[in-house]
Design a protein that fits this description.
about 280 residues; Nucleotidyltransferase, domain 5; 2 domains; three-stranded antiparallel beta sheet; 5 strands; elongated; DUF659
Length: about 280
């Protein structure tokens, strides 16, 4: 399997690893900046690694799902018909969450949640008041690189609903000059908006089955290939059952179908599901 990343000097590194019954083993790290964008050149790097491991010892290669990797994976299978390629399921699910979070209503909701989090953490007087609340735990703040964190932040904000509503209705807040600023008024309006909380709950329920599947395929405890096929089906059905209304669930299931057809609809996943005890 490959794990590619770009560091601050804009150089692309690819880590090559082997997963086998003995566990996960690191092979080598390669600066692939000069070859990663060209599939024929990239596949030569794959050939080199496969030959080092031994073609008969490799049955499956996993990379991300960028076009160059997809083409390189196809060329790899053409040369070694015993080696199958598939994109990283975790990467595909992260992109699915990205697509969902880019839907206009979701994007607006995530933006409001980000504003709430920023407002709280930018004002120590509010944060200090909240930290005195019984059972207080820090709000999970969104990261720039993982789309799943947007939904985890949504869940974290929703869990803090009683604390945040207690804050904006407290004398500590209403008597403070912050409550009279434009951002303070917007913050109060959001926290006291029932539709905001209803939308948060829907977003959480939409993302929950995807995040559960993401945790399964991201786990190093056991092989996860056999869970992708059924996991995608169960996730899709969970969202259908959540809305029970075709007009409401169709925008989400269309994104699921796109992700499945483009990236994860592989014979390998079907066989792994069939053989999974």
């Amino acid at each position: 399997m490959t794990d590619g990343w770009t560091y601050n000097r804009q150089r692309t590194l690819i880590n090559f690893l082997v997963y086998c019954p003995a566990g996960l083993t690191f092979i080598k790290s390669v600066d692939a900046s000069d070859v990663v964008k060209d599939a024929p050149t990239l596949v030569n790097l794959f050939f080199e690694v496969v030959e080092w491991v031994g073609p008969s010892n490799v049955v499956h290669m996993v990379t991300d799902n960028a076009t160059n990797y997809t083409t390189a994976g196809r060329l790899l299978h053409e040369r070694y018909d015993n080696i199958y390629w598939s994109p990283c399921a975790a990467h595909c699910l992260n992109l699915l969450l990205k697509d969902i979070s880019s839907m206009p209503h979701m994007d607006y909701l995530v933006s409001r949640v980000s504003q709430v989090t920023t407002f709280v953490y930018n004002h120590i007087t509010l944060l200090s008041w909240l930290r005195k609340r019984f059972g207080w735990m820090e709000i999970v703040r969104p990261a720039m690189t993982r789309f799943v964190t947007s939904f985890i932040t949504l869940k974290s904000i929703y869990d803090h609903k009683p604390d945040l509503q207690a804050l904006v209705t407290s004398k500590h807040y209403t008597n403070h000059k912050l409550s009279r600023t434009s951002k303070g008024k917007s913050f109060s309006s959001t926290i006291l908006d029932n539709k905001f909380w209803d939308d948060c709950l829907i977003a959480i329920k939409v993302a929950a089955p995807i995040i559960r599947l993401l945790r399964i395929v991201n786990s190093d405890e056991k092989p996860s290939l056999g869970y992708v096929y059924e996991g995608m089906f169960r996730t899709k059905m969970a969202i259908k059952n959540l809305f029970n209304n075709k007009k409401k669930y169709k925008p989400y299931t269309n994104l699921f179908k796109l992700c499945w057809d483009r990236h994860l609809r592989k014979n390998l996943h079907a066989v792994a599901y069939f053989l999974n005890p």
